[in-house]
Amino acid sequence: MELSFTKSNGELDQAILDLIQKAEGIHHPEYVREMIISALKAGQETDYLADLKMLNNTMKEMRYTNKVFAPYRRKKKVTIFGSARTEPSEPIYQKCVEFSRELVRRGFMTITGGGGGIMQAGNLGAGSENSFAVNIRLPFEQSPNPVMAQNPRLITYKYFFNRKVAFVKEADAIAVFPGGFGTLDEAMEVFTLIQTGKTAPKPLVLIDDDSGYWDRFFEFVKASMLGRGLISAEDFSIFSISQSVEDAISVIEGFYHNYHSLRFVDGILVVRLTKELSDDQIETLSSEFPEIRHPGTVINRCLPFPEESDEPDLLNLPRIAFRFDHQHYGLLIAFIGRINTF
């Protein structure tokens, strides 16, 4: 039988509906139905056992991720990346402890990879009760740190890609301390996701040590990437380098001074705000950022779109909307920065 996502599967559609009703308590059953159809189609199309195991484990890991994070959906969180090899005696370790402790004082929770080094420092400063750990099974260097070893907010993944989804999807900001290949991999993925609009804009702060680790990285990016035209000048809006804990936290808090969140609805970018903009402020944005709008379009205030009804807690926020040019996500970060000056 050839299965379809449309309701054209005869008795099978009724059997799936009966199963959903019998399970009870199913939210958004139309999407659960599609997941069941996907599983059945995978079973028909895939005879290679390793591929089915990967699909199965991926679904189970993502389901558990959602379960762990769901109670804290409205709590702001900062993901902390950094080396597992950083020793507690090193100044940058102590800076991370101070950073995460101050984050909690400002109302944030932290997310780390759950291992040693900078990850442990991030959990230590925040405290177990204000921390998440998204760990990965490795043959070395990655057992859960003692702060999080027995924590109900510890998740251990088989697959890096599921872990990376949790790091970015659940975070309102990303802080990156000096590290090795793994840290750079995580940081570069966030650069790419923000640059291409595959994740919502969020502050990406590179927290430096006394050796100028990130300053040297910046020089490389400027000379070898920008200098050869491999990135655009606006891409420098994607990240900032901070030398101090206070500066890093100011960047994170400042990003949400007036900007709240955004969403695309039928090609229109809707920017949700914490306070309404005046006509003069909208005109300032229009004149300073013409490139981010499609030619001939304007920035307007708007009411919530019907499609936003699935986020009922955000419906009371003031909004502006315009047709966004998707080539300018770097400028979009700068645009948000300008909104936060009002």
Automatic annotation (TrEMBL):
Reactions accelerated catalytically: AMP + H2O = D-ribose 5-phosphate + adenine
Annotated InterPro entries: LOG, LOG_fam, LOG_family_nucleotidases
Pfam families (UniProt xref): Lysine_decarbox
Taxonomic superkingdom: Bacteria
EC id: 3.2.2.4
Coiled-coil parts of chain: none
Origin species: Geoanaerobacter pelophilus
BP GO terms, sorted: cytokinin biosynthetic process
A Gene Ontology cellular-component term: cytosol
EC class (word): hydrolase
Protein's name in the database: AMP nucleosidase
Molecular function GO labels: AMP nucleosidase activity
